[in-house]
Amino acid sequence: MFEVYITKSGKYLPNEAVSNDEMENFLGKVNDTASKARRIILRNNGIQSRYYALDQNGQTTHTNADLTNRAIEELYDENFTKKDVELLSCGTSTPDNLLPSHAVMVHGLMKNHSLELNSSSGVCCAGMNSLKYGFLSIKSGNTKNAVCTGSERVSSWLKADKYNNEVVNLQKLEEQPVIAFKKDFLRWMLSDGAGAFLLENQPKGDISLRIDWMESYSFAYELEACMYAGGDKLENGEIKPWSDYNSEEWLKESIFSIKQDVKDLDKYILEKGSDCIQTTLEKHKMNPANFDYFLPHVSSNYFVDKFYNAMISRGMDFPKEKWFMNLTKVGNVGSASIYLMVEELMNSGKLKKGEKILLIVPESGRFSYAHACLTVC
Fold it and tell me: Which residues form the Beta-ketoacyl-[acyl-carrier-protein] synthase III C-terminal domain (predicted)?
């Protein structure tokens, strides 16, 4: 078995940062009406700026594959070029197409040579799953290097025109022409961007991060879906897939919009997340004192104190001075968020050899969690 190191990290955030007051200029107003929920949601999530692959007219400027490839290009230098890549592993919640896979589309833009591909789907854990595939490939000796990515291009899913047919339908039914909170909520939470890691079986340069272990958990066997798209939730909790609706319903009911059951989110995300962190630490005979940095992907600052208290109640005290987050300035970029945090910390000049970093990524899709331990080398 080989050691695995993150030897370089890259990112790509499209266009200019978008402030809270500018968001509706890019995403538009549903039914030409300003969202009543927007200010409340933004006050709770604490995000001050984010990035969209849109211009101010709402026109798309980049595909997801393009964002990903641009982040990957940050990994190349005189010692590592696109011709040296042995494995490409890409994770995203928002691929450009149902098929071919996201990794295939990214590889098409790389224009290098034939190589092994892996596409990880899901929600926020998709980026960690793509990382684990690369980690295991190098660990086993299958490849000597891997490029792993997490990316999202969700802005085009959140544009007002995606919901207007539903509003028209509600008006015809003489109902309030306002989209449900489970849909409006996410319009002010999510943003675009991509992150990339180069994994190798030897450390390189001034700073490398050795991946000591990775752990994953799913609670889908006991909990309903919480965040979903391409279907709708029935009264019994099952998801009716888009292909079982007729094409008129796709528009009338915004079937392809991203939705979140905020009641289930609040009820389970911290409870299950704290439980499995405790399980991970016990498995590896570690405790919070072993870590110098704690990098949690938190979708909203609303959850920060709640998360801290949930861990304290289980005997895990990660002091706030160890927390490293960039949610406020880059937004919630789903599967790319953990890559963007690691990239910023790795290039901050703060890290010292021997320090340990704990990565925590929750996913509210159907409540999955992924963890990783890194050592600075």
Answer: 281-360
